[in-house]
User: Fold these one by one.
Assistant:
Number 1:
Amino acid sequence: MKSVSLATYLAVKEVIRNRGRFLLVALVIALITLLVLFIAALGEGLATGNRQYVANLDAQLIVFLEKSDYVITASRLETKTVKSIRRVEGVDDAGAIYTSNTEIVSLAEPLKVSMLGVEPGRPGMPTILEGREFRTGEARETVIDRNVALRSGIQVGDLIEIRSTQGTEDEFFELEVVGLVDGQSYFFQPTIFVPPATWEKIRPQSESELTSDTPFPSIIAVRLVEPSQTDVMSALLMEKVSNIEVTDIETTINNIPGYSAQQGTVQTQGIFTLLIGILVIGGFFQIQILQKVPQIGVLKAIGASNGVVGLSAVMQIILVTALGVGIGGGLTYLFSLGFPPTIPLTFNGERSLIAVILLLLIGPFGGMVSIIYAVRIEPLKALRLG
């Protein structure tokens, strides 16, 4: 206990005595913390913007066209497929999902959005937070994601106009906003939802598609009676329904174009930033130890043990690292308050906590060489008497 008290006193005393030097290092650690937390938030924000709608589906399985490799944009199912799936024993319900893009032009600046056709009350239709679900048929009504409202100021009850390329001509369609949902970004874009028949009428189409009034779903979301029986039900669905392949939500997310590569890139950036932090902290404390070799020699000459010297160095590193991480965390919070909703930053509590723990650990890890060096200093050699 006495050794711990002495080590703590030595560590704190030196930090206070050389506060300018240690504060500078703490600020460098704060900048590294700021960078690591923003990289973590950027990774989570990009992932959320890409997968959010799929991840929040009220379903356990996703049905694709056979040989589409679980890629949503490559899948185009027959209209009768959804009815066939609903008849399979073990299926609670199934909802067809139709995907496309459009642009809201009744704003000061046009806003590009994902336009999804879904069936009210079926899997694929998000929970309404405000207003109501749209009517079926060709109702010119829409439910919008909260992200659309934040970016544009559109509210329930407003009319919006969208632009859609029909063949070689641009056409404009008016929709009434009847409901608001939350957390439904799809392919990095805010989302609006419309009935399937309306989707077929107003979606961008080529010349050859203009003669058809039949909407073909991209995928089908399947809710099971027993949610845990995903493997069994996948095999049963592919056996009972022809020309399909079935997978779970996680596999669907991992096969979103660019998702895995994007997350791998962001995680690599975070790892390299942590490595830079280790080198910076290790380099500083190594220089610090080299500059006070005579003082350490004196301490050992008057009876201080290797344990006290080593513990003092460890406490000093932890104190400076914690100070830097605390400053960096505070700066991150302040900066996050000023970012607009268009920047894909999502501060996930679990991911941020892991980043902070790693940042606190890199201090002692980076200073390991200097700690070992301090312990091995011989008093006589340090005082040039040996």
Number 2:
Amino acid sequence: MTRTPDPRWSREERRNARIRELRDERETPIRRRRTFQPAVLAAWLAGVMVLVVVLAFIGFQALAPSLMIWVEDHPGSVDNGLVRDFVEWYEPEALADEPAGDDGRRISVFVEPGTTDSEIGELLLSKGLIKSQLAFQYAVIQAERGGTLQAGAYDLSPSLRPSQIVAALRQEAGEEISITLIEGWRLEEIVGYLGTTRLTMNLAEFASLVVSPPADLLGSYDFLAALPDDRSLEGYLYPDTYRVDANTTARELIGLLLGTFDARLTTEMRDQIAAQSLLGGPMTIDEAVRVASIVEREAVLDSERALIAGVYINRLNTGGWRLDADPTIQYGLGTLTNGTKPLAEWGQLNWWPPLLARAIDIELPEVLLGYHTYLHDGLPPSPISAPRAASLAAVAAPDLANGYFFFVAGCPNGVRDGSHYFAVTLGQHEANIARANAECPAS
């Protein structure tokens, strides 16, 4: 007989089956979320970050010009690494160690004591010496010279790089350059020439020191010990070619020129000068330099220097004779014509004007009358040019054997070769003048 199933068991089975079904439905989505949700979250976060970076970059780009303006207004801020990184990214040329231009003209600047680096940069920019205050400030930082730039007067050029200007303002070693002072130049010509070089020293300071040398400078050299108080260093800045540092100071350069004069005036020459008689007493070094400066302007051939020196010494040592030296009158006329001209023009002026009338007829004012050696007895008040060693040696050992009192430039065979005709008497001299006039081609 068939047994009837227990209804309670059937209900229990259905209930359990339903529970298993619900459990399976519940667990399946949980497993799917655990494998899928982290990737979605990471992608979402990455997208947000990219969006933030893009928005930040766009905002930074929009703010960069304003930030750069602020940095330019506060050049000292470039000392901060973040600011420097920003400038190097946004406008790297603002930090470039490049000159403002190729203009080599000298521009004088005076840095007052206590001036900050930023204020110096502003001054240089206003003078056209740099094209970026940031570049100058960066050069100061690179050289580790913040707050150490020295006050003083400088002559700088737009052709100098910011790093070179920093070195000049620290008076540190810079570029080695060559300068050449020509024999026979007067002080103004030397100053004018130095103004064309790459020296950073202040030209006005140099001119002031050589025109009115201080007592301590004069006392440093025995050959200047007896120089009158009102005398310049005319005649003592030895003409030669020198290798010097572009950042040498005015005082250092003067010391170099005077030191070279000291070396060229050998012990033998000093002894010979002291053994010479001039104007009734032993010749002094200053008297020798004054004569040598005239010989330098007259002599062309080395072989004639001692002869020309002999002519002038004979005249000075013989009563009734004056030097009658044309170059001294030219010196007076040059001083009269150009003496009040600005220093900046000295290099372009003619300091040796030709004598357009008979020398004896030329007039000079009382203050310059001592250079009119056709009317004034004895030596001129100062040297008139920078003599070379050969001219100094000629005065130390003049050729007096022939007793010459005159000379005139000649033109042997119709060629003006720098030689002269010498004479003892006025008659011989006049004959030499006639000969020279006949030989020399008309100018």
